[in-house]
Write a structure and sequence with these properties.
Layout (H helix, E strand, L loop, with lengths): L3 H11 L1 H13 L11 H25 L2 E5 L2 E2 L5 H17 L6 H22 L1 H4 L4 H18 L10 H6 L2 H15 L2 H22 L7 H21 L2 E3 L3
Amino acid sequence: MKNYKLLITEFFWALAPLGLGAFIWFMSWGYASSLFIYPVDFLFRYAVISGIIIIFFRKSLNDSLKNKLLFFDRQIPLPPWWVFLLLIFSGLAVILFTPLKQYATIQNLVYGVIISATIEEFIARSFFIKYKMGLWEFLLLNTISSLAFTFMHSFYNQEFVSCFDLMQRGHFPFSFMLGIIVYKAQRIELTIILHMLSNLLRYTVPVCLLNCPWPSLFAIISSDFVSILFYLALAGCAYKRIDND
């Protein structure tokens, strides 16, 4: 039986996506938006988020690297988790300090595909690796985390998006499925990659790059393709093999 302090900690991390959304809103449109000048504001926000990830999850994420994922008996080569943190700041360097910052396409790719997917996965699902939990406890915490993940997106606009609209966009089942995958695979890197692909094919390409209205036919076709990838991940590699070498 878990003690109440550990349960409270797990519930805290299940609700952490709401904290992430509030922090992003506070930095973008809240009081903090007047405290920092561009590009210090962007560097500060992602330094804070990366610091939280490193302080609270570094050890458990390092331990998880010994979990070798199999995709129908073939090992999946995954980069270590810290590579994705480096990718965040590499992307920021490109869109803040190089001539590529003038291209909206590059900004959409970096923010929408690389940065958002990475920080959301780390904050929303790393605790499934850090804490050991049984099936029913996981289902409860994954439900809470997925609801928090859904409502987190309301903070991504200066004028908050309604909860009804967010539920219609499919954030909840998307998050719940990713929670299952990371719970079984115990590798956050897998869900980061899946999240990146989803953001790229379901939104960034059809809406930001092709200017298609959402939801568009292209987005629907892409969504089906991403869903197939998710089902394959569940069927073929949502389990782990411990490398004891």
